[in-house]
Every structure is written in C-alpha cells, then in structure tokens.
Amino acid sequence: MHEETAAMFDHVRTALPESGAHGFDHTLRVVRLCERIGAREGADMAILTPAALFHDIARPFEEETGVPHEEEGARMAESYLRSVRYPEERIPGIVHAIRAHRYSSGIAPETLEARVLSDADNLDAMGAVGIARTFMQSGEQGRDISDATGHFHDKLLNLRDRMYTEIAQSIAEERHAFLLAFLDALDDEIGARISSDS
Length: 198
Hints:
This protein is mainly alpha-helical. It has a single domain, classed as Orthogonal Bundle (Hypothetical protein af1432). Helix content is 71%, strand content 0%. The protein contains 10 helices and no strands. The protein has helices at residues 3-15, 24-41, 45-54, 59-65, 69-83, 91-100, 112-123, 127-140, 145-154, 166-197. It is globular and about 60 Å long. The termini are far apart. The relative contact order is 0.11. The mean pLDDT is 91.
C-alpha cells in the first residue's frame, strides 16, 4: 500500500466503527470493489481510492447533526486532503464522487470515478452481504424482519437497474437473483410458520 494511501486508510479507520451496517468493514469492501471495477474501466485510482475510503466517513454523525453524510463526508475529505497537500487537481473529482455516491442523494455521478463508486457502494447492498447488512441495520435500529424486508422492496431490488458500468451490471445480476431467492425462501418459511401455528 502506498504510504499516502496507508495514512488515509488509518485516518478513516479511526473515524468509523470497525463493523456494523456502515462500519469500516463496509468501506473496505467498497474499496476492493472500486479497485476491481476501476481497473477494468480505466478509472483514475488517485481519485477513486480516496473517494471510496472517505465515502461514509460522516455516517456516524448524520443522525445527530442532520447533515447528509455525503455532504459532510465530502467536506471532511476535502479538508483532510488539503491538509496533507494531496494533488489539488484531483480533489474536485474526489469531492464529487463522494457527494454523488448515495442512492437517495439525487446527485448524478458525472465522472467515471463517481459512477464506479456509486456502483461499488450499491453492489455492497446486494447479495449475501446486502442481506446481512440489512438485517444488521434493522437490529441496530430496533426494527423487525418486516422492516428489513420492506427495505429490500423499497431499495435493494431497484439497485440492479442503477448500475453504470458493465462489470457492475454483471455482478448485480447475480446478486439480484440471490436477493430474490432469499426473499422467496423467507416468505415460504414465514408463511409456513404462521399456517402451522393456526
């Protein structure tokens, strides 16, 4: 790992919980997906890697401050990058990618790096990991199974059609199929339990 990236990595790690629906483990998976997709797409990794590392840095403060984490995260990233004299010409691209990564932000990702980050973040909400994170988040918020499955229908099942890059579209097809199979099995089991109780 490049020394500059290692310092960034440590900085972000100290700001996030180690695990949880949006913990540092999520950030690491998004970074890895960005590396995989970015390499295939020819993205500028000096923009993409910092954007991926910082994309959720403000998540822990969102509820108490009321400031969307993508906006505060972009501000925090810009401040940090300037403090370490990161190449100035790359900072606007990093800031844009962070601001545009969120599913519900309404900001269209206008650069390749922003599109790759959006894809990677959405892919981590799909498949087996997406299922685990959804139930983890429901538990963290004191909600039940029906709340979690509501999230599948409100958001996760729409993600397949929101991918920008070809490789992400391919990965999303597999993860979408897994989500559907899981929901079918869950519906069957919940239905079977209810009917056997009556």
